[in-house]
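Question (not urgent): is this output format expected?
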Amino acid sequence: IDWTKVSENWYLGKKAPQFRSVLKDMHLDTCVDTASDLYKDPTCHAVRALINTSLALMRRFPHGPMFANFAVVSWGEHPSWIQGAVQGLDYTTGEMPPHAHLTNPNGVVGYAMCDIIRTVLTESVDQASTGTCSWVASLAALSHKAPAVALKLALRLLWTGRLTSGSQRACSAVFHQQPGLIPFKTESDAWVPPAYTPASGVEAACAGNAADCASATGKPSQPAGLTFMWSQSLMSMWHAHNYGSCPTNGSRVGLNYPGVDKSAMERNTRAQGGDEASMMWECRKVLDTTGGTCKLVLNPRVCQVLEVNDTDQCFNLVSVNPSAVLLQEVGGKCGKLTGEALEACVVGTSPVMPAFADAIKRTWPGKPFDQTSMRYFKQLAQITGYPSFTEEELNQACEAHVSLLAIHAGVLQQSMETLQWLLNETMKQQADGKDVEPYFKGCDHIVYLYHCDHKANKYDIWTWGTKTTLPREFLVGPKGIKAKRDVPGPWNLGSVCSAVTADKITFGTEKDRHVDCIGGGARCSGNQCCPASPATGGKMLACPSADPGWNGCHKEYEEVEKPPWLVAWGAAPSPCEELRGPVQLGTAATRST
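Got this back:
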């Protein structure tokens, strides 16, 4: 889309034919046609609300959204910005990653709005060449199960930098990133954009595992727009949760680009990875935030490997595992210590480590911490890394409203003919009395369980922006056949190790009307006044959950801080930055329900 032409047409009061053609391609042109029977459809209401809200925010807040940099994209026939909105982009300098000055952040909102609608309603969220499968799977689930909510929350993320009304923001360095400017190589070995000419020997970057990189041939090093806003926000928040704060300089969730050095690539790969503990945290943050239904699903027999008889304690131990990035640092800092010195070092490393150490001690009471912690690290990789899902666990995952599965990526890349051949060879090995070698080595990928049809033996798996259908036998293995592993356990020939499920989506709900003020600088409830900020046009406004028509708020403008990427350029304040100093709410009585 030529967004300059769209902007000019809109300014002149004309229709924007290119944008409407995109809506038509997605069968959404009926949403803006008052004569259509689908005009009143709930999803159409959400699409119109997103478009109208975006236009209203652009008119009211000239300094644009918090995540504007993620909508600066140079990969298409036309750039994602209107003419003059971006300056200083020069691929001939060889600078990596490339960076440009976004002089008019609202000049990319059209693209951002289009990207949100297309990503959610076509269910095409794609991790590209990253290892962010566990983080994008939740967005895939919301796009499928609650698209109207996904649209609303995506717009909130774009403008405020928050995933939910009460959540923290990503660390400030993330907002500086411009992933849509990073060149990538197509399947025909041509570089996009064509203006980029790499130095000799420079190749495109991929931070995912082998399966991720194979599926990402011809795709960017990381996506731009909504998908990367989503994953970078969650990853940044997860690591800040583990460390207790954001890093003083830089970001723990960096960008990959042509020529990135090996150590930086490895750091990004570790930071992007997810496991059962991060998935449980993610479920509570963005799927079921208030309902308490997030659940870890494991074959309970894996707890025998940990020599733990209490299944709840075993599952809790899996759920409190800190991030891989933090654990690596803890190992480097404390690995040579023993006894009480080791425990003191581990506990003092970050805010999450005391609970982690306590879970280990409660699992093996009375035993030295140095012995039990080493056992934990070794055996956790086995009980969550080897396929052990049975039909019982698969049924639990299918019955849940949302299910994210830990799976071996190889099963998603093989043809049904190849999978059937593997199964036949396995049956021959068993008939000959031989040990059966597993054809899926371990779980290295997270997917969204899209649909289950038990009767037809078809299970739809969403990943890499598309769906794959598998029969039951390749998820939980053929009945009665065990796989030979390096440690005894309930291992089978399936491909699934675990799942995180939620029985309902309460993403973004506002409990007892206590909500964020516009701009995120304070909380309020009912008939209260929110502090002035650029997000309110510099005026005190009524709380978003106030009674319809109530507004007793008339105060002077208040000075606000600039968001990090605008501060760096000495630009005017963003509409979505927090207030400086203590927040003063109005004197109206608090109202609760």
